[in-house]
Predict the 3D structure of the following.
Amino acid sequence: MFEAFKNGTPMEVWQSLVQEAYERTGRQLDESSEAYLVFVLLRYQGDNLLLARTQGMDWLQALELAGTARADALRDVGDRCLLLAGLFPGLAERRRVSVDYFIDVGRSAYFGVADVTRQAYAALYAQLARSYRELVRTLDAMRAAPKWHDATIPPR
């Protein structure tokens, strides 16, 4: 099965890692949350600035925007906080905040997206906000996996 990681598409690699995390946690995300999590992992796999951003400031700046620009900026903050809380919890300690800080900012951002988007997207982001800690647990289980360090994630 590990060979599939090396030879699979980026989406297949991330899906396999998420599914392995389920085996370790004994919990599984609903289909839409899993698909969204894989989308976020794909979207940010090559982001060299992910760890350099200040999520609280980005969240405040997003709140000053309107319409689609606000929804997009809040989504980005929520996505990045999700990745930071689940995959890079040590960053919180280095910044002298708790992982809960990233979870709270990320959940608030997703609830903000739910408030300003069309009904179908609103329902998705409200669900993502409610299951935020479960998403973080899934990422944390991926991070802790021995295969995580050996897997070759193909470039985009």
Notes: Confidence is low (pLDDT under 50) at residues 1-5, 148-156.
